[in-house]
Amino acid sequence: MSRPKSPSAARRARPDELPPPGSEAYAHSLRLLEKLHTQISANGGAIPFEQYMQAVLYQPDLGYYRCGSQKFGIGGDFITAPELSPLFARCLAAFVAQSGAGDTVLEVGAGSGKLAACILQQLEKQQALPARYAILELSGELRQRQRETIERACPQLLERVQWLDDLPENFAGVVIANELLDAMPVRRFRIRGQQLFEQYVAWCDGLLCFRDQPLGDVRLIDRIASLREQTTLVDAENYLSEVNFMAEDWLRTLGKKLQRGVVLLIDYGYPRSAYYHVQRNSGTLMCHYQHRAHPDPLILPGLQDITAHIDFTAMADAALAGGMDIAGFATQGNFLLNLGLLDIAEHEQLDERERLAVSTEIKQLTLDTEMGEQFKVMACSKDLDVRVRGFEHNDLRHLL
Ligand SMILES: C[S@@+](CC[C@H](N)C(=O)[O-])C[C@H]1O[C@@H](n2cnc3c(N)ncnc32)[C@H](O)[C@@H]1O
Questions:
Q1: For atom 14 of ligand 1, which residue has the closest CA?
Q2: What is the percent of the chain where pLDDT is above 70?
Q3: Residue 159, Cβ neighbours under 10 Å: how many?
Q4: CB atoms < 10 A from the CB of 132, how many?
Q5: Would the pLDDT of 3 be above 60?
Q6: What is the spatial distance between Cα 337 and Cα 339, in angstroms, rounded to a whole number?
Q7: Which is the closest atom of ligand 1 to the Cα of 182?
Q8: What is the mean pLDDT of residues 81-99?
Q9: 11 phi and psi angles, rounded to 5 deg
Q10: Which of 102, 219, 351, 381 allows an S-S link to 172, with CB 3.0 to 4.6 Å?
Q11: What is the mean pLDDT of the segment spanning 293-311?
């Protein structure tokens, strides 16, 4: 059975239990390996893990998100909330309609385009369509897939959709990023006693391997020093974890470009004290391949997704540095229930079989054991007159 891309819900697999790739996929992966070999050699024999993750996910034509594999849904590698149930998009449409945040919706990293299509259809029903629905997506192949999904679902609304190459300047609106930040490349560090290392990727006997190099980068050294002051990391002896500077820089830049509006970040992660708990001593990095989750990012290059959880405290700091306020922080389950998930589901005219399916979807979206608790929603706002919805009960901002 396919499972939501919840780290706890995906079936855990040992790397040797994974289904072998077909010959075409294997050849594709070898082409990417050749590129990596050249890149690693040109860099003196090793590249930082962040650079490796960037290449295997986003190398033009070869990276996981840049090639034609299915990725999303039952025939792919993982299922995200918009793929799991249209109820997720209907709740977000309710959020957009009541946001009072201008006439642009900007979705960043729109995957298959299902969320965009469903939000647009729902807003059309409510006569609350935005003047434009902009999508910022790095992958040309996914842009094409998004266009086809929207054209199939609501061709009359396609003209409102615009694909962007970069974040727009000085705009007002609602920004939606579902499972975007976890797909951004991370830096990995290791603490061994008093010594600090950064994890690199090198070649060992013709295979990719990890290599820890003494840490020299001031930004990462300073961050680890702060983490040691703020968390139980102070007691760490041998500890591997990660920092997502790319996501932080992206959010700070977005905040500076947003004139007025709200940014909704939906992703799995924790406040800092839980993320960098001394017992979480091998980090949060996880790979997804054909609905199996496993921890080895060096296998199947270009064929599997690699993700890391989000330190929401770091994201809150980045939002503040970008001039935004933190308007709410909640588990996905509470956020959707606050937005009226149960009433939204109740409005459907359903037969008995459909009712059963909807009730399963509600459980998957909200239960602590499924996506409800590990996924969090953080809203960052700027210059808004209305109260941001979705956080009326169980707002967890005090944990950030
Ligand atoms: C895990 S997928 C999530 C897709 C979709 N939001 C969903 O929930 O099904 C991550 C998406 O983010 C895109 N992406 C990653 N980094 C990006 C960036 N810096 N700007 C825009 N899109 C990005 C990927 O190409 C991919 O579409």
A1: 109
A2: 97
A3: 8
A4: 16
A5: no
A6: 5
A7: 1
A8: 95
A9: -70, 125
A10: 102
A11: 95
Q: Write the class of the CATH domain 11-399.
A: alpha beta
pLDDT of residue 7: 44
For the segment 228-245, what is each residue's pLDDT rounded down to a tens digit? 999 988 778 899 999 999
Query: Is 2 a residue whose pLDDT tops 90?
Result: no
Instruction: Supply angle C-alpha 306, 178, 33, rounded to 5.
Output: 20
Pocket test for ligand 1, best of 88, 138, 175 (most atoms within 8 A of CB): 138
Q: In the prediction, which pLDDT does 11 show?
A: 65
Span from the CA of 110 to the centroid of ligand 1 (angstroms):
6
What's the pLDDT at 10? Answer: 55
Question: What is the DSSP-derived secondary structure letter of residue 282?
Answer: B
Helix axes 114-125, 86-97, angle to 10 degrees: 50
Domain ranges of the chain: 11-399
Phi and psi torsions of 33, nearest 5°: -60, -40
Task: State the Rg of the chain over Cα.
Answer: 21
Ligand 1 atom closest to 184 (CA):
16
The residue written with tokens 């960037």 in the block is: 54
Q: CA 142 from chain center: how many Å? A: 15
Tokens of 325: 């306020």
Cα separations in angstroms, 240 against 160, 161, 243, 322, 350: 45, 42, 11, 29, 49
Residue 291: other Cβ atoms inside 10 A: 19
Question: Which tokens sit at 162?
Answer: 């615009």
Span 21-38, pLDDT tens digits: 888 888 999 999 999 999
Which tens digits make up the pLDDT trace of 120-147?
999 999 999 999 999 999 999 999 999 9
Closest-CA residue, ligand 1 atom 5, reads 111
Higher pLDDT, 10 or 116: 116
Helix (H) or strand (E) holding 248: helix 245-257
Question: What are 68's two structure tokens?
Answer: 């034609």
Cα separation of the two ends of the chain: 35
- Residue among 395, 370, 103, 158 at smallest CA distance from 271: 395
Ligand 1, CB within 6 Å, residue ranges: 65, 72, 80, 82-83, 108-111, 136-139, 142, 178-180, 183-184
Quote the DSSP letter at residue 296: -
In contact, 128 and 96? CB cutoff 8 Å = yes
